[in-house]
Amino acid sequence: MSATTIATEIDDRTAKASILRLAVAQALAGANSTVVMTTGGIVGSILAPRSDLATLPVTTYVIGTALSTLPAGWIARHYGRRTSFLVGASCGVMIGLVAALAIYLGSFALFCFATFVGGAYQAVAHSFRFAATDVASPSLRPKAISWVMIGGVFSGILGPQLVNHTMDLLSPHLFMASFLAQSAVAVVCMVVLAGTNIPKPTAASLKAGRPLREIALQPRFITAVACGMISYSMMNLVMTSAPLAMKMCGLPLSDASWGIQWHVLAMFGPSFFTGSLITRFGAPRIVATGFVIMIAAAATGLQGITAAHFWAALILIGLGWNFGFVGASAMVVETHRPEERNKVQSFNDFLVFGFMAIASFSSGQMLAHSGWALVNWVVFPPVALGLFALMASGAFKRRRTAEA
Question: Regarding predicted confidence, which is higher, 38 or 214?
């Protein structure tokens, strides 16, 4: 066995300990997102002055995520990943406390502010998958992303169960106790993240690397970002609308909570093997598979408005998201050098969540004025565009290879 191979095995053995800690943090931080997505539209419908503003708290959450990605990347670049993680987790504590106060006071504006702050926690949580690649060898990186995402499986159980068991504890203030419990979970996440050991960038690396514009204009980067934007925005469009649509169709809140639980499990469950599939078949093919599953999800959502139809659509859109988003993340990692990672990864997430914010706000408008059917119809054009981008990128790569 060569010295290089031995060193790689030792590094990857150490890396796996860090990846495990990040996966645990992903599970805890993911519960925050699940609570917001499960309750945001419903609380919004109670507090909002107009019905078409019901999903605005979810939109402000996504906007908070988008606007926090670049600052989170800057903090990680200059002060290290752990500092960025702890700042984000403190925002996770704040969202729970402020949201609970907003529900108690009946303040829609304060609730929207709370979810906006919570978006910063989500922005940092989304960097966990990239942080795992900082300590992994090139061959381990697709699996590292996938393994961290496995933490979402447990958040898919923790978040909805937290909501189910606390929603009425401080009656008549629906979900107030849920947000207080979520704040406590964020404190636990801070403890886990305090033990992360990811090397800080060196002074030399802060000045090294290509300009962001040069990296961003690479065809492969453009394709990767487009696929990430489409995967996340279309998933969020359906997920944000579904709980409120179920309520509008006369289904109980417990059905909405169960639907989100199965949805989140479908989002993260495939992460047990997505990384291996990417290694074997390549990220573009996995992303394309995810897009096909998303089309199936939208088609299912158009078939009926029973709980079973909603659950099936949510499960399929979650599966499609996993293949699409994990694959797109793996594609992004291949477009930059180690010294460029923080600025490129945060820029990628800024674009992804900025586009997702538009989809989130649009979902409330579509649902209020045109109903659940239009939400599903809207999925088809962007996904078709994503499939076309993947084919065009593949053709461009083959042409470059042939010319070399």
Answer: 214
The secondary element (H helix, E strand) that includes residue 322 is helix 307-333
- 162/254 Cα distance (integer angstroms): 12
What class does CATH assign to 11-403? Answer: mainly alpha
Q: What pLDDT, on the 0 to 100 scale, is given for residue 10? A: 42
d(CA 135, CA 97): 34
Hey, what are 42's tokens? Answer: 């419903």
At residue 6, the pLDDT reads: 39
Closest CA to 111 of 42, 186, 184: 42
Residue 8's pLDDT is: 43
Give the model's pLDDT for residue 86: 93
pLDDT of 103 higher than 90: yes
Contacts of 404 (CB under 8 A, 6+ apart): none
Q: What pLDDT score does 299 carry?
A: 96
The full DSSP string for 178-236 is HHHHHHHHHHHHHHHHHT---PPPPHHHHH-S--HHHHHTSHHHHHHHHHHHHHHHHHH
Both structure tokens of 15: 């890396």
Instruction: Determine contact, residues 35/164, Cβ cutoff 8 Å.
Output: no
3-state class of 160 per DSSP?
helix
**pLDDT given at position 345:** 81
User: How close are the terminal C-alpha atoms of the chain, in Å?
Assistant: 33
Q: What is the model's pLDDT at position 1?
A: 43
Tell me the average pLDDT across 45-51: 87
- Decide which of 334 and 289 is more confident: 289
Q: Which two tokens stand for residue 146?
A: 């996938």
Q: What is the pTM of this model?
A: 0.73
Angstrom CA distances, 157 to 145, 168, 257, 308, 349, stand at 20, 19, 11, 19, 25
Helices 141-166 + 307-333 axis angle, to 10: 150
Token couple for 227: 């696929």
Longest dimension (CA), the chain: 69
CA distances from 180 to 34, 93, 96, 190, 315 (A): 14, 9, 5, 16, 28
Residues in the chain: 404
Q: Judge contact between 25 and 151, C-beta under 8 A.
A: yes
Residue 13 CB burial class (10 angstroms; 0-12, 13-18, ≥19): exposed
Mean pLDDT of the chain: 85
Q: Are 53 and 364 in contact (CB under 8 A)?
A: yes
